[in-house]
Design brief:
Distance between the termini: 42 Å
Strand content: 5-15%
Structural class: alpha+beta
Order of helices and strands: HEHHHEEHEHEEEHEEHEHHHHHHH
Number of helices: 15
Number of strands: 10
Strand order of the largest sheet: 1-2-7-4
Bound molecules: cobalamin
Shape: elongated
Length: about 375
């Protein structure tokens, strides 16, 4: 019985458009201890919510009483082609906000399961409920931890989201994923801010993704030039990963997303962003993950990128922020103007992304 139901659930999940699906028993996550140590070492920075919910994160059964199984799904998010922009946006944020997309699909899946098994209780977790999603995904066979801390699937690479549906039903369980990076350390060497301080250990406080999305204060000066042209999030540690790149004589590994809602939206130019008012921002990024940075955070990032670009045409757009009421934006504008007057474009090259969103064609579908 669990075998038939599991097979049916997996087929249903695939029909809903998920690219990966596996099932794990609900148990204490294998990396619970390293997670607690990571928190204690302060690597989470201002992400207090991780600390507040740590007890639940290491005990998924506390999120749903009598939880037996975790159905773990993966949804590819990288587009076949990066949209043309004059800055860079992490692939995961190019389309609609993934939380809504995955949640909707998992709600449909849960309803279908409950139609079959009316007694079954479920709880959907897409960042929303505190679980260590990658640990559960690893146990469900979706992928293994790379040294960049992303979950990597040997066939698919790492450009996929993870969603979890906890269930009170017993199901047939998959084996944990096997694999590893071997001696490769491309991601550690490529990170422009040195956020990957050791294999499997990310100091989030230095990660461009954290700095541009989670941090609500000024970005520390030493990280600004290395940010290059990353306006929101960063994919460098994934772009250099051999599992996300085509290999000679081998079929391409990472597959572009098939999900219509994850296809890239059109993006405003940097100059437009610098002129956006708060209301324009809310309108333009409605339903997009970019909203998480808030207007203030995105403008701060845009000022830094404008500084890194050293483009005199952007100066008139930076200058109004020198008189802005928000000290964080004033200071970012001052920095940007100083950068723009520096003679050599030292920092721009340091991230390897001198030309925004043009460098990577690893996901082209030919
Ligand atoms: C907080 C968070 C962040 C933070 C911290 C990142 C991090 N590495 O933890 C910030 C804002 C920096 C971030 C960035 C990104 N994130 Co994020 N993030 C999360 C979130 C909400 C919690 C992660 C967490 O618990 N971190 C805690 C720390 C301790 O985890 P860790 O550093 O990876 O450490 C673990 C491993 O290294 C392992 N480990 C430790 N030692 C060892 C030793 C060995 C030998 C091995 C094998 C493993 C191992 O155990 C540790 C504990 O679990 C999850 C969603 C969720 N609820 O799980 C999404 C999530 C991890 N993020 C995701 C994504 C897509 C990203 C970005 C790619 C977005 C972007 N392009 O900007 C980047 C990737 C940066 C990176 N290299 O990690 C996806 C990852 C999907 C995948 N395939 O892996 C998730 C799962 C969201 C989702 N639902 O899909 N993120």
């Amino acid at each position: 019985m669990p075998r038939d139901v599991t097979k049916w659930i997996k087929q249903y999940a695939r029909a809903l458009g998920f690219d990966l699906v596996g099932v794990a028993p609900v148990q204490s996550p294998p990396h619970a201890e390293s997670f607690l140590l990571w928190l204690a070492q302060g690597y989470a920075g201002v992400m207090d919510y991780l600390e507040r919910t740590a007890g639940l994160r290491i005990n998924p059964a506390a999120i749903l009483p009598n939880a037996r199984s975790a159905i773990v799904v993966g949804l590819n998010y990288a587009p076949a082609e990066l949209p043309p922009t004059d800055y860079r946006i992490a692939r995961y944020a190019l389309g609609d906000d993934y939380h809504a997309v995955i949640r909707e699909k998992l709600e449909t899946l849960l309803c279908a399961i409950q139609a079959l098994e009316p007694e079954a209780q479920g709880r959907i977790c897409v960042d929303s409920a505190p679980v260590l999603e990658r640990d559960l995904a690893m146990l469900a066979g979706l992928g293994w931890y790379g040294k960049n801390t992303c979950l990597i699937n040997t066939q698919r690479g790492s450009y996929f989201f993870i969603g979890v549906l906890l269930l009170t039903m017993e199901l047939e369980y998959d084996s944990p994923a096997q694999g590893g990076c071997g001696t490769c350390r491309l991601c550690l060497d490529a990170c422009p801010t040195g956020a990957l301080i050791a294999p499997y250990r990310l100091d989030a406080r230095k990660c461009i993704s954290y700095l541009t999305i989670e941090l609500r204060e000024a970005i520390p000066v030493e990280h600004r030039e290395p940010m290059g042209e990353w306006l929101f999030g960063c994919d460098i540690c994934q772009e250099v990963c051999p599992f996300n790149r085509p290999r000679v004589h081998q079929p391409m590994r990472a597959q572009p997303t098939r999900e219509p809602r994850l296809q890239p939206r059109s993006l405003p130019k940097l100059a437009e962003i610098l002129q956006m008012r708060e209301a324009d921002f809310a309108e333009r990024f409605r339903g997009s993950a970019i909203k998480r940075a808030k207007w203030r955070g995105l403008i701060r990032n845009a000022l830094i990128i404008a500084g890194n670009k050293r483009d005199p045409a952007l100066r008139p757009l930076i200058e109004p922020f020198l008189r802005h009421e928000d000290p964080m934006l004033r200071e970012a504008a001052e920095w940007a103007i100083k950068q723009a007057t520096k003679e050599q474009a030292v920092g721009r090259a340091s991230s390897g992304n001198a030309t925004a969103n043009s460098g990577d064609s690893s996901l082209r579908s030919e």
